[in-house]
Amino acid sequence: MSSELLVDLGEDPATAQLGQLKLATIEDQQWPADESTLSKSETDISQRFDGGSPHLPWDHPFYDIARHQIIEVAGDDNFGRKVIVFNACRMPPQHQLDHHKLLMYLKGTLDQYVESDYTLIYFHHGLTSENKPSLSWLRDAYREFDRKYKKNIKALYIVHPTMFIKTLLILFKPIISFKFGRKINYVSYLSELEDVVKCEQLLIPARVREYDNKLRASLKPTAQPPMSPPRSPPLPNQVFGVPLTLLRQRSPDGDPVPVVMRDTICFLSDQGLEIEGIFRRSANVTLVKEVQLKYNSGATVDFREIEDVHLAAVILKTFLRELPEPLLTYQLYNDIVNFTSVSSDSQATAMKTLVESLPEENYASLRYLITFLAQVSANSEVNKMTNSNLAVVFGPNLLWGRDNAMSLSAIGPINNFTRTLLDQQHLIFT
After folding, report:
1. pTM as predicted
2. Angle in degrees, 0-180, between the axes of helices 259-271 and 309-321, rounded to the nearest 10
């Protein structure tokens, strides 16, 4: 993985050459379309909408954008930052895509996360002379994203960069700031992304994986990049990535709420309620791994000794995201995504019924978490974390599709459900 600095040099004659830059035809234009990668839960819903976006009706203003799944949200990275994915290969030919609407759709997505640290991953493979946007559009798009979008983006990873994209970035030097340029990283192989995010949680298009394999095969044996590391077998005292039922069986007192949740929430209740931006900041990845290893080794973790509120917050989110099944369970996925169809007068009752159908460990853990988040929200004048802000952070960590990644059109309903859960928690958990 490499990072290249794009220094702000002011106006440059190279800008005039942007319109002349052409993208050579590449062989992957003849590749077959991706196989369907929708999870079963998403497929069930999509049957209602005539083969388009899994969750947006055909008359939704962004239906024609969402159905291509160009933009996706893929949970948190290894630093606790939200991950936004842009798939170039899913962009249809220029005449079939409203690029202005695509830009508005991307801005609408980022608007949910720009107050928190986030990571952007751009899969470049599949951008051709047929589907690439105009260079003037790219220039205007960069200018459209003002400081609020650029401040908290911690890294932009360009996967499978070509000479075209590298040349483009050089020519765009005059309008790319020095600080933003330092956030741009080139990623030559998918395995390099493992340092940033677990690739299994990214819904990587089939043709991108095929292209990555093709690149590997073309290398000499001595130059082969490392493959993604295999999953380590679970440790005897493993805590992360273990079902809640098993954690309860191992618990000396049979507590249905896992020790990680109890430790982090207890510490955050005492030390974090008045910290501005709690749950919005990332943490040192080395410390995160050290704490995870301690838990997985059966050791006791005392966050009061570490004295790092953001570390405890990231550990809590990471624990929830690494559960083999989301806290709200796959069984409730369809009901939650379609919850907006429930009338506002009936939502509290319907939500109470759904939540009470959860397994005992899930219900107890959810109640413990939501009760704590209500305390966080009660201090929102100081910490700036309202129920809406908390829902954006925790929604994707409470529910996702069976394929780990989820389409943007599912994020809204999940976040709305989480916000309502927080708004009505005093009625639901009684």
Report:
1. 0.66
2. 150
